[in-house]
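pls design
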């Protein structure tokens, strides 16, 4: 196959229809555009941060059909027909609100670069727990291990997640966890 034939075989733009933060989105994009770049550059959702662009740091974590993914590793065309939720889309989520408050109380925020990915990952973790189940520190640390933070040392972040999880548990008030 010649280079000339290869160039003609690859479409220059493709149509993508998806839902982002509850809004239907249809755009024409290059087929190799990453989801992170679509969110940041085309949709102006800059809460999705780009750190390593290799899927290691977790700063670009978003939810696709309810599961956390590294948006720097996905081509945008891979979310055709999917529901994408960014940290901006979690703004009214009660779990995320509890997490934000707990992060502040437990000093889990410093420079803030990792915070969007941490919030998305922790929201998924807490909301994925069976009713009445309690998270333990080891499970929280393991889940957050894919989200790198260079500032906090993780102690405050882990305490914040445990605190927010306890607040969402129905029996939290009997354990003294509600505030």
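designed seq:
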């Amino acid at each position: 196959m010649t280079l000339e034939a290869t160039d003609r075989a690859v479409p220059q733009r493709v149509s993508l229809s998806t839902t982002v933060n509850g809004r239907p989105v249809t755009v024409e994009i290059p087929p190799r555009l990453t989801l992170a770049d679509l969110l940041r550059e085309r949709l102006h959702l800059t809460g999705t941060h780009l750190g390593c662009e290799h899927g290691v740091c977790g700063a670009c974590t978003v939810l696709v059909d309810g599961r956390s993914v590294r948006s720097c590793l996905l081509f945008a065309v891979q979310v055709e027909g999917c529901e994408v939720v960014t940290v901006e889309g979690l703004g009214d989520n009660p779990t995320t609100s509890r997490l934000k408050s707990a992060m502040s109380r437990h000093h889990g925020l410093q420079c803030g670069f990792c915070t969007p990915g941490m919030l998305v990952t922790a929201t998924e973790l807490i909301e994925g727990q069976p009713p009445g189940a309690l998270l333990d520190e080891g499970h929280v640390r393991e889940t957050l291990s894919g989200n790198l933070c260079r500032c906090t040392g993780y102690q405050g972040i882990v305490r914040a997640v445990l605190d927010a999880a306890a607040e969402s548990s129905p029996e939290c008030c009997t354990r003294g966890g509600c505030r």
